[in-house]
Amino acid sequence: MLAEAARRLEATGADAIDLNMGCPVAKIVTKGQGSALMRDPLGAAVVFRTMRKAIGVEFTIKIRGGWDDRTVNAVEIARIAESEGVDAITVHPRTRSQLYSGRAPWEIIASVVDAVAIPVIGNGDVRSAADAEAMVAATGCAAVMIGRGTLGAPWIFRGAEVPREERARIIRRHDALIEALLPPRTAADPAEEAPGLVRQRISGRRAPARADVPRPRIFGGSRDLLERLVTTQRYFEDFAVGDRFKSPSRTLTDAHFMFFAGMTGDNHPIHYDEEYGKKTRYGGRLAHGLLLASLTAVGASTLAPLIEDSIVAFVEQTTRFRAPALIGDTIYPEHEVVALERKRSVGLLTLRVALKNQRGEVVLEGEHRYLIAYRPAA
Question: Looking at the domain that runs over 236-373, which CATH code has it been given?
Fold first, then answer.
């Protein structure tokens, strides 16, 4: 759905598509949207990939520091986004649970800047040009996005004191733009959000016609960033024993358990009955074994985009379960090249796969074998 929406927006002439993963509002996150996507890095990776493939214009995202203080994962999400072809990232460093309260921890922005090569835009607690300069100095971000700091003070972008007469002119223009561009019912909303700016209607003016109001451009349309991010394909000769690839983590939830049970018919109460699970040796609801095995899929790892052109076949896998995984556990998949064997027409690549939980304990380990093509002759 998101990919199709992005495709349609591009067709209407959008210069860029921005995915907002920062919205903390309850009616949004309860649908699994906005900052709720921060809770599901693997799901977010799928969204990034499908949207990136659907559009040719710049693709950017906005994220928060994480869902709450226990899951501050902005760096993880940023790295996934970069690997899936996102062109730039805006970071609001508060967690969803903070909403808009407390201080915005700019150090999270700095950590994202250090973790990725794509442009990072800082956001949060910027109410003046001096604040913006301080953010750039403190974090190294490439640009600054100002949100709530503009409400009631759109002249913030001047970077200097604005005389009363000029403020009045800006208020009148803002008021006219609202009436020209928004339907009557919607036009009242910005006035409620910005008291002192547009709540008092200015009499004796004619709102400009919709066609008379210049349309802002949002990014500039340059393809330079995307061209720098084209993924280099790997062939058999490009791998070495010891190469490692980490996949996005995933916290096991009811949704995963119920989907897997519905797909496979495995409805044992150990997977869905909390009280039953408490009476077992595990003390809780146990993840399906094959559900865990599916989390080792190379298609969901950072290796996947590197072998899109070279993978020939998935030959076999072995799996050994080392510890139980329960609902609420966060699983971290890892892949490591452990053997390379040249065959007549293709190479055989062996990966050691492992799943670790949030305590670093190995839950599952095994091996996957893939046939990988040799690099084509020049």
Answer: 3.10.129.10
Tell me, yes or no, if the two domains 2-227 and 236-373 fold the same way.
no
Mapped to the 3 state alphabet, what secondary structure does the chain carry?
A: CHHHHHHHHHHCCCCEEEEEECCCCHHHHCCCCHHHHHHCHHHHHHHHHHHHHHCCCEEEEEEEEECCCCCCCHHHHHHHHHHCCCCEEEEEEEEHHHCCCCCCCHHHHHHHHHHCCCCEEEECCCCCHHHHHHHHHHHCCCEEECCHHHCCCHHHHHCCCCCHHHHHHHHHHHHHHHHHHCCHHHHHHHHHHCCCCCCCCCCCCCCCCHHHCCCCCCCCCCCHHHHHCCCCCCCHHHCCCCCEEECCCEECCHHHHHHHHHHHCCCCCCCCCHHHHHCCCCCCCECCHHHHHHCCCHHHCCCHHHCCCCEEEEEEEEEEECCCCECCCEEEEEEEEEEEEECCCEEEEEEEEEEECCCCCEEEEEEEEEEEECCCCC
Please give the CATH architecture assigned to the domain spanning 2-227. Alpha-Beta Barrel (3.20)
- Tens digit of pLDDT at every position of the chain (378 positions): 788 888 888 888 899 999 999 888 888 887 778 888 888 888 888 889 888 988 999 999 999 999 888 889 999 999 999 988 899 999 999 999 888 888 899 999 999 999 999 999 999 999 888 899 999 999 999 999 998 888 878 888 888 888 888 888 888 888 888 888 877 655 445 444 444 444 433 333 444 444 444 444 334 433 343 333 344 689 999 999 999 987 778 888 877 887 788 778 888 989 888 899 999 999 999 999 999 998 898 877 778 878 888 999 999 999 999 999 999 999 999 999 999 999 999 999 999 999 999 999 999 999 999 999 999 986
- Residue numbers annotated as active site: 23
Instruction: Locate the domains of the chain by residue range.
Output: 2-227, 236-373
